[in-house]
Amino acid sequence: MTMHGKKRFSVDDALRLCAGAVNDGPVACATSSYAKGMRQSAVSKLCARALNEAPAFCYKEAPSGLNADAKVDLCASLQAPRFGDELAEGEERYTPAVCMRDFPPAPRLKPAEKARRCRLATEATRPCVYNASLASFGTALSGDQVAQLCAADVDGASLRCAGKVHHQLRMHSGGDGVDEASAVLAACLGADEAVDACVRAVRQDSWSIDDKLRLCARARGTRPAVCVSELARDVHDDELLQFLCAGATAEYTDCLKMAPQELSWKERRSLCSGGDGVIPIECYEEGRRNGLAANTTMALCAGAWSVSAPIKCAVGVKAHKVGKNEVVALCRGTPDETGILACLAEAKNVPTKARICAGARDAGPGVCAADLHYKFRNTYGVMLCKGAADALPSHCASFQQISFKGFYMSAKMIQKCREEPERIAKFMPAKLLHDGEAVYTGQPFGTQIWAYNQYNVRIEGSRSAAGMRGDDSVVAFMSPKDDVKLGGTKRIPFREGEAFFKDLTLDKAGTWEVRFEQRGPSGEDVEQPAKTTIFVQVRPTRYETLVELCAPRLFTFQCLQEPYDGSDHLGLTMSRWDARIAAMYLPCIEFFEDEGVTVVTVPGGDMYFLYHEELLRLFATGLYSSGAGAFHYFTEPWKVLGVEPDATRSELRKVYHELSLVWHPDRWAHGTLYQDRAGRVFSGISDAYGAMLERLDDRGDKGREGGKGKDTPPAEAPWAASAA
């Protein structure tokens, strides 16, 4: 693996180098000129988690007396965010290497010991490291202990604390039987001068300096000593008194004294430590009033910051059939029980729901747990879903498991699935929303759109991703299928993974394409916009749709029927349909009657249809037209005429002549309705014939067999000449 084209790393070394990186600092460090000539494994260890080139620079400047491993240990922890800044004239960047170089000559220390003291050196710790080496207590601390003490030092407070504590140790114990280094570090790591003040305030003369230091370790004032004086009359065990008052505050001491007498002193400390004043006590009393066991209430209220929230949580959790220990794990210390209860309600029958929902602030972890693949309903499920905002981690894991052979869950995969942002991969129209099965010209219609994520799972409800916020939207573009120009647009925001498009209208019949895209708040494309397309068949009117639906039904049925007795009455044909068959044609009755069919329904549901025989001939053809020259079934002129696209002029004349003998309006004798229908059919035939001739003229094509002149549709009926 080559990084920036400068240094080649093995995959393992590269992974070790980049694990946990927050920027490209590890790569910059590893490929810098300062790291030239180093082993790959050493570079990976030195530069892991580096913010810039500072560790490599430190390594290069380290004293030559150190071996490679010692140099790596010295510089690996160096983080200098301002390493790239230019220095003022005469200024020197302070690094662990500079720290070693400027180390005071006394006491005389070996290079390895100096390296340990300078390991965490920065400009802020420079005075502490220097002075600690000169101080009388300095020799009592190891190099690592000096580094820890100084790294936590604020304005020299920890260093001054160490000097005073060291003096106390020497004055009271004479240095016998006391681990000075451990005592100093325990008392003063990150502390201030209050440790010394606290030790001086302890009035128990019988206590050793070790006892006083344990009581006052990291104290921020004299309150631990005050706690001892307030409890000394009730607690006579010195060890217990030190245990109770270590790290005490005023509120903590009040909580200890107000605790119920039924509780032991150790139980009181457990209850009050970390809490907000006397709230743990009030929480305990609330739990006992609600019938909770004493030990359960103790565990729930320890360190509580809310009086009622842990108790309400415990009472609500019981309805989800979890064990006593799980109740405590779920509800202890929670400031708000609503999130935990919502999480449990979503997780339902997941075996690890108690571990997943502990500390939940909303239903997100439970939503994630509910979608877990059965193979992950264990520790992996907890790692995936605890603290999750939605179901995305479980979607990701299930997708990986289903998609890849030999897939196994690992820490890296869990991290990937937890950190990968959710995005919309596609939209899916649920259904066209309108009154019937068709969309008509000028009639409003709509659709409901669902969003799906990259794992083909529908985004809905609390599972909505950041990309589904209300400031994002979906835009509908409508255009004819055979036209690239966009039609009207609608801008509708998604809400919880759904969008509703209403009152969409199209002003032209045909097949229209409706395309949906995700757009940003200002109309710009968002990252990886998702698209979906549906096709809408738009018809001119509802009546013409009935023609398409009902005319073939009438004709098809009549081809299978024998005329009913008496069907020659008044020149009409009569058919009888039984109730079972007639029920299929109920939507078409209005259409039949408009076309001259008399429909009579008799008791029992049977129907009688009376009609002229010519009507069937009119409906039998696929040339039936909804208007002059506009055909439902056929849109190409050669299909209307029933010929091949490359038909010759002679073939066209023959077909036109044959069709005219059938469809000329003069051939229809039954009233104006039939003549009108037949006339429109004949008009469509004539238009198709003319269009085919124009195609031949445009190509300069005389046909397969040749031809002469330019043909036009005859002005009179073709049968007129033969009759003459």
From TrEMBL:
Pfam family, one: DnaJ
CDD domains: DnaJ
Domain spans labelled J: 636-706
Location of the region described as Disordered in the Swiss-Prot/TrEMBL record: 696-724
InterPro entries named among the record's database cross-references: DnaJ_domain (IPR001623), J_dom_sf (IPR036869)
Ranges that cross the membrane: none
Organism: Phaeomonas parva
Composition-biased stretches (Basic and acidic residues): 696-713
Cross-referenced PROSITE patterns: DNAJ_2
Source organism superkingdom: Eukaryota
Protein name: J domain-containing protein
